[in-house]
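Following up on my earlier message about uracil. Here are the inputs again, as you asked, copied directly from the submission form:
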Amino acid sequence: MDILNIIDKKEKGEKLTKEELQYVVDGYLDGTIKDYQMSAFLTEIDLLGLSEEETIDLTDIMLKSGETIDLGFNNIVDKHSTGGVGDKTTIVLAPLVASLGVKVAKMSGRGLGHTGGTIDKLESIKGFQTSMTLDKFKDQVNEIGIALVGQMGNLVPADKKIYALRDVTGTVDSIPLIASSIMSKKLASGASSIVIDLKVGSGALVNNLDEAKELANLMVKIGHNNNKKTACVLTNMDEPLGYAIGNSIEVIEAINTLKGDGPKDLTDLVIKLGTLMVAAGLNISEEEALEKVKENLYNGKGYEKMLEWVKAQGGDITSLPIAKHSKEITSPKDGYISKINALEIGKLSRKLGAGRLTKDDTIDLTVGIILNYKVGDFVSKGKSLATILYNDKELTNEEILSCYEFSEQKVEKPKLIIDIIK
Ligand code: URA
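Thanks, got it. Here's what our run produced:
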């Protein structure tokens, strides 16, 4: 076998065998296949796609390229978000479902580009440890039902290397490559059921609904092929989720949501994903799961579990750090808000210091943007549209206002949950 023949075969539209895909992945990992050859191969996939069978084979090869974690429990439910702006869902959802007896043993990522990451957000809690040994991780899940850390172990090294190359070769948006990348990591981390929040819209990885459905179907198929209950919820990411975009301010919003006082969109999303997770984890009907989720969201049990979890990981939630300065951006007119561009708000939050452009950038966990209105709301001229929390880097009024569009006519609130595929 040789890489040039394989690239040639792909170029002619012929199907690749599992052995050929294995040869490419192994060769790239051991260095015999070079970056320029692999990028030619990935570009072919980006342009011509992969069949369902090839995608399933590629996922399996990537999954087996490194360690897999066996947590020793059989009702672990994992949740994954494809990333968005203001997405603090995991911080609410994880303790909420854990308070109902679903085991949460979760690895999360850091923010990159315009999207935030759960691990950064949690690190704004003083003392909170985002890494631990696998033994401590298992013990904590056993004792209190929840542990959440950054990536650990040598899981899916093939994805680490291939993803880094995709990032600089314009091949991040290929549907089969996204599906195999996400699912290989989910399958390697030991969950028995997987719930994926697939964001669709201007602030998301995928902005086209047909492509999002194709990706969702593919991920669900891969999950089922591996005997995992898998559901994919397509959710709107045209405007940011909730009101807070940053790190510590998102944790504050997550806490308020767990106290039953969160933004409507975030609360609705938590209830929907929570219902799917609890139904899968406890093997009960969705109707029953929905009742349980709502109960623990509003009776304080989810919040109590969060306190227990944060304490177990060394954190002190009593005082979250906030930036030194704040500035109000007022509305230039009366009208209904018809657009808040999630992508641009995410980039502005990063410009304040809340996000990073490269993996090694340091970020300011205290800064961010708080929206005071959402799409569909009426705002009067002179009212504060958004509050900027900042330290050394500022934003101009124009920068924030350029993210907004207004309408004189009433605007419908966008539908948050677009579809569910399982
Ligand atoms: N997230 C991943 O883990 N992989 C992708 O390819 C895209 C998003």
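One observation from looking it over: The first helix runs from residue 3 to 11. Hope that helps, and feel free to reply on this thread.
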